[in-house]
């Protein structure tokens, strides 16, 4: 409400036009309310866009799992926490065996649905505090805090068990396995690149050993 509107209301009031003045006030209040509502809607839309952009930057668009950016951020936090508390954590690098054959035989749509189901199973097999990220293609990385020497083996068993049951994709029943490598902080590296490289090396070493075996089947 600007000065000219206030002056007009004052003139109407002094001249006995109280009802007209009230009508003007009501109209101005209604207009202000509409503007506030529009601004609120615009703010909500802007927040939704920001949230969408944030998810695109930090989460995998197919599986909804954290992507490499968010994984590296959490590894950085895990390193700082482990150094501060003299703790330890592990990275497990998981690569699906024979996934290319799934795409070649059934098409990329089936491959994408399989990745979505795999992501869901892997996530459900871990603790809430653990991170399971898809870093590209058929590669996943798990970040987990460890206390005892046997913790890594327990996590490996859980991940393998999550893939043990067949996957139903439409009319297709698929079985697929994975090769896993791991790295422990601080024994196997003290930064992100060193830890990921060590876990990746372990994964490929296991994959080369298992290459003669068939890791993808249909029923």
Order of SSEs: HHHEHHEEHEEEHE
What's the shape?
flat
Please give the count of helices: 7
What spatial order of strands do you see in the largest sheet? Answer: 2-3-1-6
Largest sheet: 4 strands, antiparallel
Structural class: alpha+beta
Share of helix, binned: 55-70%
Low-confidence stretches: none
Overall number of strands: 7
Radius of gyration: 29 Å
β-sheet strand percentage:
15-25%
Query: What distance separates the N and C termini?
Result: 74 Å
Descriptive report:
The longest helix is centred in the first third of the chain and has 41 residues, at 18-58. This protein is an alpha+beta fold. A hairpin with a 2-residue loop joins strand 2 (131-136) and strand 3. The chain is flat. The mean pLDDT is 85. The strands form two sheets. A four-stranded antiparallel beta sheet has the order 2-3-1-6, sandwiched between helices. Strands 4-5-7 form a three-stranded antiparallel beta sheet, covered by helices on one side. It is built from seven helices and seven strands, in the order αααβααββαβββαβ.
Which terms summarize this structure?
single chain; 219 residues; flat; alpha+beta; 4-stranded antiparallel β-sheet; 3-stranded antiparallel β-sheet; 58% helix
């Amino acid at each position: 409400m600007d000065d000219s509107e206030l002056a007009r209301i004052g003139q109407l009031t002094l001249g006995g036009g109280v009802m007209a003045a009230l009508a003007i006030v009501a109209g101005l209040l209604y207009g202000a309310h509409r503007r506030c509502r529009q601004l609120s809607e615009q703010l909500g839309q802007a927040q939704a866009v920001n949230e969408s952009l944030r998810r695109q930057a930090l989460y995998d668009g197919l599986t909804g799992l954290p992507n490499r950016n968010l994984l590296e951020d959490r590894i950085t936090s895990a390193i700082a926490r482990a150094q501060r508390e003299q703790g330890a954590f592990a990275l497990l690098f998981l690569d699906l065996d024979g996934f290319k054959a799934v795409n070649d035989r059934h098409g990329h749509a089936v491959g994408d649905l399989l990745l979505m189901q795999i992501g869901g199973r892997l996530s459900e097999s871990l603790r809430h505090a653990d991170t399971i990220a898809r870093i590209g293609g058929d590669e996943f990385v798990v970040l987990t805090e460890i206390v005892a020497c046997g913790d890594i083996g327990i996590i490996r068993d859980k991940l393998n068990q999550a893939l043990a049951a067949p996957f139903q994709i439409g009319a297709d029943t698929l079985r697929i396995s994975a090769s896993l490598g791991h790295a422990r902080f601080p024994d196997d590296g003290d930064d992100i690149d060193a830890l990921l490289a060590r876990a990746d090396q372990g994964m490929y070493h296991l994959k080369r050993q298992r290459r003669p075996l068939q890791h993808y089947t249909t029923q």
